[in-house]
Write a structure and sequence with these properties.
This protein is of the alpha/beta class. The protein contains 8 helices and 8 strands; from the N terminus they run E-H-E-H-E-H-E-H-E-E-H-E-H-E-H-H. The longest helix has 15 residues. The structure holds D-xylitol-5-phosphate and zinc ion. The site of D-xylitol-5-phosphate has 21 residues, from strand 2, strand 8 and helix 7.
Length: about 230
């Protein structure tokens, strides 16, 4: 598979300089902007909303924005993100009373839809909605914070999700989120992922004089992916 995409999570960016941070990471060769929305209810943290997504679009960001909603209930906020320029909108099944309806709503609003699975959440609810998802996102950490360690059991879950996608025949991306680094990205790709969220590994990368060095880390990830 050669269609690998790197999606830096802006959760670990410098929020005081967010537009510049996003420009720089995209210039380094990243593909997608991963936008983590936390509500201090579904997860114990609070981050950014549609105003910030809209601000990035007005700043001139044209790359896809992958909005990961860690929000419950989720339906009310979805139209706001569609209006704010989201490309993908993904949500956790625990955040919606009617998963099928929420998936349909995202597509009707012109966005690509996706379901997100926590480490302990089985993939079973995908069975009857494979025709309504554009992305399956497996969490390899418990949602809420950047900088946690990759949970190894996710590799088996990736293989299971990859099989579901391949057997379905649908064009569905398989994204992984949490603890992705240069030294494990190849193994994760070999287990079936094609879209790689990385927050602390990218925005925490430092070069000479302690300056940010996104070029080197994104290139190192690509080099590892090329071996998968
Ligand atoms: C966690 C978020 C992730 C987070 C990943 O709830 O969904 O996107 O930013 O951070 P790292 O790559 O540092 O594990
Ligand atoms: Zn995320």
């Amino acid at each position: 598979m050669s269609d690998f995409k790197i999606a830096p999570s802006i959760l670990s960016a410098d929020f005081a300089r967010l537009g510049e941070e996003v420009d720089n990471v995209l210039k380094s060769g990243a593909d997608i902007v991963h936008f983590d929305v936390m509500d201090n209810h579904y997860v114990p943290n609070l981050t950014i909303g549609p105003l910030v997504c809209d601000a990035l679009r007005k700043h001139g960001v044209t790359a896809e924005i992958d909005v990961h909603l860690m929000v419950k209930p989720v339906d009310r906020i979805i139209p706001d993100f569609a209006k704010a320029g989201a490309s993908y909108i993904t949500f956790h099944p625990e955040g919606s009373e009617h998963v099928d309806r929420t998936l349909q709503m995202i597509r009707e609003l012109g966005c690509k839809s996706g379901l997100v699975f926590n480490p302990a959440t089985p993939l079973s609810c995908l069975k009857y909605v494979m025709d309504k998802v554009d992305m399956i996102l497996l969490m390899s950490v418990n949602p809420g914070f950047g900088g946690q360690s990759f949970i190894p059991a996710t590799l088996d879950k990736l293989r299971e999700a990859r099989k579901l996608i391949d057997d379905s025949g649908y064009d569905i991306r398989l994204e992984i989120d949490g603890g992705v680094k240069v030294d494990n990205i190849r193994e994760i790709a070999e287990a079936g992922a094609d879209t790689f969220v990385a927050g602390s590994a990218i925005f925490g990368a430092k070069g000479a004089n302690d300056a940010n060095d996104y070029d080197t880390v994104v290139a190192a990830m690509r080099a590892e992916l090329a071996k998968a």
